Amino acid sequence: MFEFTDAVLLARIQFAFTVSFHFLFPAFTIGLASFLAVLNGLWLWTKDSKYLDLFRYWIKIFALAFAMGVVSGIVMSYQFGTNWSVFSDRAGPVIGGPMAYEVLSAFFLEAGFLGIMLFGRERVGPTLHMIACMAVAAGTAASAFWILSVNSWMHTPAGFEIDPETGQFLPTDFWQVIFNPSFPYRLAHTVTAAYLTTAFVVGGVAALHLLKGRARNAKVSPATRTMFSMAMWMATVFAPVQVFLGDLHGLNTLEHQPVKVMAMEGHFKSYPGGAPLYLFGIPNQDEQRLDYAVGIPKLSSLILKHELNAPLAGLDTVPRDEQPPVAIVFWSFRIMVAIGFGMLGIGLWSLWARMRGRLYDHPLLHRAALLMTPSGLIAVLAGWFTTEVGRQPYTIYGYLRTSDSAAPLDAAAVGASLVAFVIVYFAVFGAGTYYILRLMGRPPMQSEPSVAEEMDSPIRTAGITPAQQLTMKSNRNRISGD
């Protein structure tokens, strides 16, 4: 089946599939962990039960998404030793340390305090439980820090030397490795994207229940209204910040990876007197032109160089074997930008509705927010495709080609594992995602049950003996019967 297929291409497809599947979960849980910490803090400060109800509602979803993110992430680390063993051997001395720190600091922090966050409210007291919530939120952010540092180094490598005998990349300055030229921009852009992803998922779920309540002429709970309000505040504040960060990131990319920007802009030829911003077009890489192009004259030069007539080089200055797949980069970039401005529009629209006192009584806004529920997930994937495909044909930009990074495996072996991943991922993670959607399909209840109550209380893992559990169940049955 795979005899005549390129093994490197199959390995790239496999890694793209697994990393895309994995990245959806951290993109959601990074923001959701912080949202839960804020909700718990508001509950402790105000003692308003709606914050506790929202905390209990979303922590069940968080636990499932976190678990699926961990499991899907483990698979990726194995691929470094199988499909990409040459890359691991060459780059291991540099990237091994930061990836180990991610496990030792971020993952241990998350895993160590997650159980207390889920089950410990009544057992450790409010102060320690709040510390656990903050620790999990800090752990998710720290995980993003280390992973993005490694990935950014692959885009803008710094602080290393190459061993002339082994060809290995050896670190010479740890701080330059970590804080490489693109890292601060990519960290800020990605973490803000994660917060916006969470905001639009939370806002979309709230909008769904606001619309359902309106259709049934039923009273919507204060928790649902608060959920929508907080999500729209996030969209209003962070969407314009993300546009600004995206501009800074783009300027940094132009400085260090100009070929990627050429592909993003669809500039097959150079423009000595100001480059247009192409809104639409069909990249024709074989003929090195943009077909059916629709653009605004000189706007690309104004955005990238802050001058209308600033010259911009095109792909005609780059050898064919140094060019990335332009069509993927061109379209994924436009999808990301379009969604970003859509988020900005929803945020401003919600601010207008809030100022008019119609935030909870504006069905058109609620439908738009519901439609935008998956927008953050789509945008982070589009941004990831833009970044990673735009780096091709390199894994370590300018130094190590992708074709030289793959393990010497047959296409049949890589293809068989790819098929297995596709089947298992859609079965296992499809079931988990379906259950998450079912949880989101019902609104938060007044006196929302905790995770322990939903599970009918853990037995030994939380220190409850079987006899105690039977007594608690008997008491609950007696009370409900009375």
From TrEMBL:
Protein's name according to its UniProt entry: Cytochrome ubiquinol oxidase subunit I
Membrane topology: Multi-pass membrane protein
Principal localisation: membrane
Localisation per UniProt entry: Cell inner membrane; Cell membrane
PANTHER family: CYTOCHROME BD MENAQUINOL OXIDASE SUBUNIT I-RELATED, CYTOCHROME D UBIQUINOL OXIDASE
Entry-linked InterPro entries: Cyt-d_ubiquinol_oxidase_su_1
Superkingdom as given in the UniProt entry: Bacteria
Keyword Metal-binding listed: yes
TM stretches of this protein: 20-45, 57-80, 100-120, 127-148, 192-211, 223-245, 328-352, 364-385, 411-437
Species this protein is from: Paracoccus marinaquae
